TrEMBL record:
It comes from the Bacteria. It comes from Actinoplanes cyaneus. Residues 154-176 are annotated as: Disordered. This is Uncharacterized protein.
């Protein structure tokens, strides 16, 4: 694994197959989390390296936001973290909320989370809000699907009187 001397904001993979996405840190413009991404796509130069002339397409790993980041938006690795599992010391941005160990690939708290207690609560709120949104969307999808099934069942039901399943009025008695 090498760190290009002119830009310590990412590393290339040990096998030479391009960018190591677990070393690319950006700030999500929508939720503000500073972390690596679950997905990065980027333009490559003729020799297969990262082409800094084109923006990177990034997926926020906290909440799944998609955004473009210019090459200069990649955060410099200006601090170090020690992996809680394998003790590897690796370079990360000091403002990172979450980091990934380049050896064992464990996601863990970044230096910024330790610097500020309210930061963790803030990120928890962001994640919770996102989960609530996903649940609400699932619920809407489920309700719409159920309504569709009910409509299909109604449409396929024989006319009243044939199957005997039309509702009879319930006898009631009023006692004063
Ligand atoms: Zn985000
Ligand atoms: Zn590790």
């Amino acid at each position: 694994m090498t760190t290009p001397a002119e830009n310590p904001s990412y590393q290339t993979r040990a096998d030479g197959a391009g960018l190591d996405i677990d070393t690319v840190y950006t700030r999500c413009p929508q939720c503000g989390i500073v972390a690596t991404s679950t997905g990065v796509s980027y333009a490559i130069t003729a020799d297969g390296g990262l082409d800094p002339a084109h923006p990177l397409e990034i997926t926020c790993n906290a909440v799944g936001h998609r955004y473009s980041a210019a090459f200069i938006d990649l955060l410099a690795h200006d601090a170090t973290a020690t992996c809680v599992r394998c003790d590897t010391v690796f370079a990360v941005p000091a403002v990172a909320d979450q980091v990934v160990c380049p050896s064992c690939r464990l996601y863990q708290d970044g230096p910024f989370l330790h610097a500020d207690d309210s930061r963790r609560a803030e990120l928890d709120r962001t994640r919770q809000a996102h989960l609530a949104q996903i649940r609400a969307e699932l619920d809407r999808t489920r309700q719409a699907h159920l309504a569709q099934i009910r409509a299909a069942l109604r449409a396929s039901r024989p006319p009243p009187g044939v199957s005997g399943d039309d509702e009879q009025p319930v006898p009631t008695r009023c006692i004063r």
